[in-house]
Amino acid sequence: MEGTRKRLDVPDAVCEIAKRLEDSGYETWAVGGAVRDALLGGYRSDWDLATAARPGTVRKLFRPSYPIGIQFGTVGVRGSDGRVYEVTTFRRDIETDGRHAVVEYAATIEEDLARRDFTVNAVAYHPLHHTFLDPFAGREDLERRVLRCVGEPAQRFAEDYLRVLRGLRFAGRYGLEIEPATWEALTAAMPNLPRLSAERIREEILKLLAAPGASSGLALYRTSGALAVVVPELADLGDGEWEEILYAIDGLPAHRGHLRLVALLAPARSRIEDLMMRLRFSNAEMRDTLELRAALAVPVDVAGDVVGARRWLRDVGPERAHDTLRLHFARARARGAGPTERRDLASRARLVLQVLRRGDPVTVEDLAIDGHDLKALGLQPGPEFRRILERCLEVAIGRPELNQRETLLDYVREELCR
Fold first, then answer.
1. Residues 311, 395: Cα–Cα separation, whole Å
2. Do the bridges between strand 101-105 and strand 91-96 make them parallel or antiparallel, or are there none, so unpaired?
3. Could you tell me which residues are beta bridge partners of residue 146?
4. What is the pLDDT of residues 160-201, one digit of tens each?
5. In terms of pTM, does the model score above 0.70?
6. What ranges do the domains of the chain cover?
């Protein structure tokens, strides 16, 4: 179905790329998420193009260009606005195994659209003629807020089981109702999710957490049975605790996906590390999550007590303070904390942040002395150094004015070197 019901705001650079391809005799359409989001009234900068031109031809027509996914027919083309846009040759699947597809180049855009997962993602827009190609009524589904597979749902999911998780994310992100046949096939495909690589599952979870509607998508994870398969450590949570997790995630900005990840995984407690290793999170992601989870366990028990605020920063780490406070606020709202409790938490947070801005000593690294100074006193390097510096830090936390080199060295001589 073609039409011109709505003219989309396509970046000039994308139109220029399409025009060069079309002028060279190669049919070219805008496809994918940017078209879908534009139809919903949103805007994305990462427009993708599908073309009849083969990758080698695309690379000859555009300089510079980059082989982003050359094995899949995708070339990155730098537009006049400095952005790199993906240009992919029309494709069709010739073999699938539920994890990967073997594809070959197709002759038409219709074949390319037919291999896509959901109708809302199978709409093409011609950026020069301002016409739509919508053979599966994806625009109508968007208007009705319905998520529906292209063609036979069971076949679509069997081609790539990641589409199960993608479908849940799209439904949550865009507030779509999964139509009955698609839902039935989606839930029936759950036992096959373990066939997916851990890396693909992890990336899909991170995409869900980084998008609006994350809590709705996660609710669908639980209802559909996906949660029990991909994150079984959370499957036995009670309804009340699960609802608190979802509310906490809603209370955190979408662009702070690492905090949403902590809010999601924190209830797994001692199993977090094993969970993250299984899903192949990076060492940095694991360290960040585990440290924030540990920091979140430290109560902000500093009411009117500046020394307590310094100790809290010592225990949490000043670099974790802002994120930890954000998590505390999100959890307080999620558990239904009343106005008095929230005001009290805000007051404590202000005191902590004042201490942080003032630069009071809260870590060993903030001290006016270090290991070199201790060596100069004739002390031997070793584990005792840390104990001595921590004792000095406790002095400085209680009275920051004592954080002077000679004052601390006198303290070491008199109190710790006897």
1. 11
2. antiparallel
3. 177
4. 999 999 999 999 999 999 999 999 999 999 999 999 999 999
5. yes
6. 1-139, 298-358, 364-416
Cα separation, 115 vs 91, whole angstroms: 8
Q: Which residues contact 340 (CB under 8 A, 6 or more apart)?
A: none
Cis, peptide link before residue 299, omega less than 30° from 0: no
Q: Count CA within 13 A, CB hemisphere, residue 163.
A: 32
Dihedral over alpha carbons 370, 372, 373, 376 (to 10 degrees): 160
Q: How many CB atoms neighbour CB 86 within 10 A? A: 18
The answer to whether residues 59 and 73 touch, using CB atoms and an 8 Å cutoff, is no
Q: pLDDT (tens digit, 9 = 90+) per residue, 110-167?
A: 999 999 999 999 999 999 999 999 999 999 999 999 999 999 999 999 999 999 999 9
Do 266 and 296 contact (CB within 8 A), yes or no? Answer: yes
The token pair that represents 23 in the structure block:
């002028």
* Among 110, 107, 197, 198, CA closest to 151: 110
Give 197's contacts (C-beta < 8 A, 6+ positions apart). 99
3-class SS letters over 93-112: EEEECECCEEEEECCCHHHH
Q: Does domain 1-139 have CATH number 3.30.460.10?
A: yes
Burial of residue 12 (number of CB atoms within 10 Å: 0-12, 13-18, 19+): exposed
CA pair distance 347, 171, nearest whole angstrom: 39
Q: What is the three-class DSSP state of 31?
A: strand
Beta carbons within 8 Å of 322's beta carbon, 6+ residues apart: 353
- Structure tokens that stand for 176 in this block: 């779509």
Distance of CA 147 to the CA centre of its chain: 22
DSSP assignments along 124-173, one per residue: EEETTTTEEE-TT-HHHHHHHTEE-BSS-HHHHHHHBTHHHHHHHHHHHH
